[in-house]
Amino acid sequence: MNEYDTNRIFDIVSTIGYKRTEVKTEADCFVLNTCHIREKATEKVYDEIGRIKKYFRNFNKPLVIVSGCVAQAESEEMIKRESYIDMVIGPQSYYKIGDLILNYYRRKKKIIRTEFEAVSKFDELETFPNTQNKISSNITIQEGCDKFCNFCVVPYTRGPEYSRPFKQIINEAYQLVNSGTKEIILLGQNVNAYNYFENNKNYKLSAIIEELNNINDLKRIRFTTSHPKDMTEDLINCYKSCNKLMPFLHLPVQSGSDEILKSMNRKHDKKYYLSIIKKIKNIKRDFKISSDFIVGYPGETEKNFDETIELVNKIGFINSYSFIFSPRPGTPASEKNMNNEKDNQIKLRKLQNILENLQFDNNKKYIEKYCEVLVENKLKNQTKYFGRTKYMTPVIFESDDCNPG
Ligand code: SF4
Fold first, then answer.
1. Is the CB of 145 within 6 Å of ligand 1?
2. Do β-strands 384-388 and 394-398 pair in parallel, antiparallel, or remain unpaired?
C-alpha cells in the first residue's frame, strides 16, 4: 500500500514541477513514506534522516517530509525529536502534498497534517492520473480497519474501513491496462471487507474482480491483504467464475491456537480458517496459500505454539511472514506482560525453519518443469529477466529475446 501511495505522491508532486532522481545529493526534496507496523520501521525513519543530514552537510538543506503511518502516529513528536524534518503528513492527507509544499516555500513554517480528513482522499486523487506503467500494478480499493486486533496499530493510523467508489476503481484499472499493465493487485488493509453502496446497489470485492476479469488485455488479478472473516461465498466463488484470478491467496492466520486467536481478538478460529481453505480447494485444486504469524504473543504457552506448528504442517503454506510479537504503543496487547525474549527467538527459529522447508519443497516441484511466468522487467545491466509464477514465486531467467509483459 505504501508503494501505491508513494507512486500517487509522485503523480501529485510532478504537477508542481518535481522529477524523480536517483542521485541523492541532487534532490531538493525527500519524502519518506513510512510504515508503523513494527518498532524497527519507526527507528529506520530517523536513521534515514540522519543519512540525509550527512549527505547535505556541505549543501543547501533539502525539504524533508515524513508521510505515512509513522507520521500519523507520532505527529508533532517527530519534529520535536528531529528538527531537520519540515513536514509531517498522515496517510489520509497526502493528496494535499503539492499545495503544502508550495505553502511551505511561501511561509517557511513547519507543517503538520495528521487529522483524518472528512473530504474523501480518493475523490481528490482522481484528478491526478495514475502514471504507474508497470506490468504488475497496484490499486488501493479500500483503506482502514474496524477489526481492532489487539496487537495492531492500523485502526489507529489508517482510521475506520473506507471503500472507494466502484467506478473510480474500474476507471483506474482501465488507465493502467491502457498503459501496459498486465496484472492488477487490488489492495486494502482489509481488502475483502470492500463494501460500497451506490444507487441501491451494493458492490463487494467479488464485483470488482468480475469486472476486471472482462478486461481483454489484463492477464492476472490478485488481492491482498484479506481477513478470514471476510472470505464470503461470493468471493470464494470468484475462483470458479474468474479465470484471471490467480490460485494463490495470502490469508493471515497469526496463530494456530484458538486461545491465542481469542486473546488477539482475531474474530476467527482455526476450524473456520481451515473451512475456507477447504472450500477454495474444492473449487480450484491447484490453489495455494501463504500467511502471517506472530510468535510469542503475550501469554502464548508451549502448547499454544505447538498448535501453530501443527496448523502450518497441516496446511503446507508455500510462503509466509513470521515475526516475534512487537508491542505497538496504544494497543491493548502492549499493556500485557511480554514473554521471555530468548524463548520467543527459539520459537521463531523453529517456525521459520519449518516454513522455509515447506517453501523449498514446493519450489523443488518445479525443477525441470515448464511454468507460466509473467515477465515484469529486465535486470539492470544483465541479460536476465524477472517475472513471477501464478503463485507469486519470483523467477529469474536468461533470454536475449524477451518482451516484458
Ligand atoms: S484485521 Fe489486520 S489491519 Fe485490522 S486490526 Fe487486525 S491485523 Fe490490523
1. yes
2. antiparallel
